[in-house]
Every structure is written in C-alpha cells, then in structure tokens.
Amino acid sequence: MRMDDVDQLIIGPAQKGLPADSAELSVRALLDRGPHLSDLTTPLLTLDGPGMDANVAVLGRYCAAHGLALAPHGKTTMAPQLWRLQLEAGAWGITVANPAQLAVAQLAQVPRVQLANTLADPHGIALAQSMTADGQEVVSWVDSPAAVRRLQEHLDPTGPQLDVLVELGAPGGRTGARSAAIALEIAHAVQASAVLRLRGVAGYEGALAHDRSDAGLAAVTAYLTTMTELYVRLAEDGLLDPLARAGVDGILTAGGSAYFDLVAEAFADVPARLPGDAPQTLLMLRSGAYIVHDDGFYRGISPLRDEESAAAAGGQRLRSAMHGWARVLSRPEPGLALLDAGKRDLPFDEGLPEAQRVQRGFGAPVRELPGARVTAMNDQHTFLEVPADADLEIGDVVRLGLSHPCTAFDKWRLIPVIDDADAADPALTGLVRTWF
User: Fold this and answer.
1) To the nearest 10°, the Cα dihedral for 236, 239, 240, 242?
2) pTM of the complete model
3) Cα→Cα distances 419→216, 293, 429, Å
4) Which of 165, 183, 189, 352 yields a CA-CA distance of 20 to 30 A from 409?
5) How many angstroms separate the Cα of 115 from the Cα of each of 196, 218, 253, 324, 395?
C-alpha cells in the first residue's frame, strides 16, 4: 500500500476520536458507513477538506504569479496524503527536517526532497546518498566548514555526490553561517569536495521576527537582501558554473509561512542580476503551515491572512482548515467550564485555542458563545472562562479555533477530514494518517 493511500489501512484499536467498533475496519469501510462527527467521540481534531484544497490552490497561484517554486515543509503535517496533494498541485518537492522525516519521504517516494538542516548523523548521511543513488533528488544544507568535513567523512566516495546548499544565518537567529564571508568559505569548501555539489543558498527568516512590526519586517528584509547578494556572488565567482554545465538548476530558498511576501519581493530581481553563464535558478519557498493555516499565529502574521492584506500581497486569503472539538465536562463555578480536550490533543505553544461556537451536541443548532475565553490548558482539560449566566451545559460541544499547525498534527495518528466545519454535524470524508 502506498503511504499516501490509506483506504485499505486497518484502523486498529484505540484511535482517538474514532468509533469503538471501527478497530477492525479499513478506512474505506468506515467511510462507506457515511459517518458524521456525531458518530465520533470528543476530544477531536478535524481538517476541513475544501479549506485545504482552497489553501493549496491559493498558494499555488501566488507562487506562479511571483515566479516562485514551492517545496512545502512536510514537518508541518508529516502526512504523505497531504504531501501528494501539494505535489499534484505543482510543488517542486517536499522539505523535511531530520533523518527520520527523510526516511518517510523515501518510503513515500517523494521525487525531490530538501532537508532543511545540516546532516550530522551518519545514518542520515548514508540515507541521503542512498536515496540519491536510487533516483530521488535530495538537497541538504551545510552551515560550517566542520559540517562539510563531517559529510566528507561519512559519504561513500564511490557513490553519487550529495547536493548541498550553504545556509546563511544571522546573529541571534537559529542555525546558519553568521556572515556572508563565512558562507563563502563554506561554498569554496563544498566546491573543493569530491563528494559534494554546491546547489545554492538557503536560509530561514522566521527566526528573526515574530510579528509584522516595522522592526520585525526590517530585520527580515535585511536578512533576505544579504541572502540574495550571497547567491549572486556565488554565481559571479563561478562557484555555480558546474551546475550550468550539467544543466542543473541552482536553488535560492527561504520562506516559512509568515513572511513569504518579503521573500518574493527580495528574490524578484535575482535572475536579472546573474551573469549570463549562470545556471537556471529556482527561487524557492518552503512554506508548510499554509495548507491548514490557523486561527491564531498565522492568522495574525501571514501575508494572506485577510482580504486586505492578501490584496496588498498580490494574492487571495488563506482560511483556517483545522479545528478542535471538545465537550463541557464540568461547570464547577458560575464563570468556569472545563472541556475534555487538553495539551495532549490540541496545540498551545503559539497561543491558546479560542472558543468559536457551541451547540447542545452535534446536529443541534449552532450558536455563538460571547465572552468565552480559554485561559489555561492541562494535559486533558481546557479551562474556559465564561460569563456567569452563560447558557452552557454538561455535554455541550464547543468548536475551538487553533493556533500553530506544526504542533497540532503530531498529537494524532488518524485525523478526520470533514466536508464543512461550519455545518451542525459535518460529514466525514477521509482520514489523514500522520507519520511522526
């Protein structure tokens, strides 16, 4: 069975949220029953199928309009089903972060994989070279001469070369060479290596800011400018000439899901600045969270967060395609309700969930819950502050807006996909399997 085809997967026992009698059923057999959320148990995390389709199309059009390739970060979902959706929509490949995720990409037969990190583990290095030998295109990062030496020590000199990108960082950032001068030193070390091939420059701007303040945007823009100057310098110095002779694309890549508009702007004039004999260059985003977006961090910071900002960025808005569902377990005080979802079920690291609506149960009329606010989460409980006279009873179902997809998917092995998160009792249209 292909990793992105779970129809024949046997659900197995004790899958969170799924009916107790589904353990021996295949995914297809369960879906053929025509289940709705009312057939499932809370707490739940759901994905909105039409919302994901729309988000994939939105970013695809954005990239096409700005001349950008896309290698979405697979760590967000670790779901080959969703990777396939992204690839079929035109993504260049999938990005991963470590050898375990690289192994999933190998098994999922992803044709092109970018490992957005330095490979230091010897087994991971061997895996990357093995995948290259088997015809999968693998591109990794290096951020120091020591990292280059580490790769040289563990790559098989009789095997294929491993493609690498020089990672440029910034003071106070995450990994990456702390100056263009060090990055150039790394590039020369790669070019001199018999087991490595220099493909270009990589970086991550998201570690330099956490909002859209003037200072944050300025820091990101300055960093991206340095990245482009470094890539042009590599081309001018002939360090990318072997790519041109081999007919292989160079790569300049940045862009999480928060500042890809700044990446598009900074990268736009790079092709015109390259010497005539430079290789064709892929200007590449790695945005991953966009496929489900959110009702928290990315809703506040994404360039496509609403109609106004999307229009300014030259695109259409993204929409949240993930939600939490939890029941009221207790009303121990007039202004407090305890819900049956907690940190084991829903993300909390980039903001607590928000209460969006309530109903007596799935299928019952939906109503707003004014004045409700999540104040804290324990492992299995959410504290919901409500007005003392709130119409909220034991067993009521609260839909929660969530923040940060990257720490939502890892809490679930099979995630229900629904047809309409705004319906009173959404129908189940699929199950997404994660590989964390």
Assistant:
1) 130
2) 0.96
3) 37, 17, 6
4) 165
5) 15, 27, 12, 31, 45
C-alpha Rg value of the chain to the nearest Å: 23
Is 80 exceeded by the pLDDT of residue 71? yes
d(Cα 32, Cα 74) in Å, to the nearest integer?
A: 29
| Residue 362: HSE in the Cβ half-sphere, 13 Å Cα cutoff | 19
Angle, vertex CA 47, rays to CA 426 and CA 35, nearest 5: 35
Q: Name every residue whose Cβ is closer than 8 Å to that of residue 124 and which is 6 or more positions away in sequence.
A: 98, 99, 102
Q: How do residues 329-380 score in pLDDT, each as one tens digit?
A: 999 999 999 999 999 999 999 999 999 999 999 999 999 999 999 999 999 9
Q: Which two tokens stand for residue 96?
A: 């991963």
Assigned token pair, 400 = 């929660």
CA distance 433 to 423: 24
Does position 137 have pLDDT exceeding 70, yes or no?
Answer: yes
What tens digit of pLDDT does each residue of 411-424 get? Answer: 999 999 999 999 99
Name, in order, each residue with C-beta under 8 angstroms of 242's C-beta and a sequence gap of 6 or more.
Answer: 191, 197, 198
Query: For residue 4, what pLDDT band results from cuts at 50, 70 and 90?
Result: confident
Which is it for strands 373-377 and 382-385: parallel, antiparallel or unpaired?
antiparallel
